[in-house]
Amino acid sequence: MAEAQGKTSAQVILRWHLQAGNIAIPGSSKEAHIQENFDIFDFELSEEEMQRITDLNRDQRFAGY
């Protein structure tokens, strides 16, 4: 999916969050990654792509805060 969009996996995930109405707070100490995180406003995921990512949900947290 990322390759088809010409984006990275992280950008696709951030775009999914944005389109789903979620709040995502990406973090990085590397300037290139910070700039990459902002480069998600020039594409949209289709409804099918959104659903494919949503279907990955396993109701499992990978980080506890």
UniProtKB/TrEMBL annotation:
Question: What keyword terms does UniProt attach to this protein?
Answer: NADP, Oxidoreductase
Asked if the record carries the keyword Chloroplast, the reply is no
Q: Name one GO molecular function term.
A: oxidoreductase activity, acting on the CH-OH group of donors, NAD or NADP as acceptor
Keyword Amino-acid biosynthesis assigned to the entry: answer is no
Q: Where is the NADP-dependent oxidoreductase domain?
A: 2-57
According to its UniProt record, which protein family does this protein belong to?
Belongs to the aldo/keto reductase family.
UniProt protein name: Aldo/keto reductase
Organism, as annotated:
Parablautia muri
